[in-house]
Amino acid sequence: MNYTSFETERLILMPTTVRDAAFVLSLLNTPKWLQYIGDRNVKTVESAKDYINEKMMPQLERLGFSNYTLIRKQDQQKIGTCGLYDREGVDGFDIGFAFLPEFENKGYGFEAANRLKEAAFQEFGLTSLQAITSKENLGSQKLLQKLGLQLIGTLQLPNDPIVLLQYKIENNNVK
Fold this sequence. Notes:
33% of the residues lie in helices and 26% in strands. The chain is α+β, with helices and mostly antiparallel strands.
């Protein structure tokens, strides 16, 4: 099936598939992913393929959106991910993002997440977006606020003792 890809000035946002397994393996083992998101026990390209098939593809097939690999237009370099997630324990859809360290703090996060926020509201018909982040992840908090999300409280995901900050934005164009 063909799924929608998106573009920004500098990026192509392509639905993540098993062709991205080596990239996903690298991303899921970066220091900030491990610190702020957690170890997903993805240690080989094969386990990355399994992770994509089990964690990303079912939602993409069910809803038409999920996780997107961010590709820099200038050199086709895979630099990070951004996605809209139907996450257990979060009421509504969650927007999230992660980057390889060398591509952080260059504006790519806002560029990609803002485009997906627009798609969520204008193309996928979502009425609101949530986001969760750790209290220590100040970079993520700043980006969520820049995107217009507001802190609404805290929550804990099922079977996880960590208390996370919860952000939300409403689609004000819903009729």
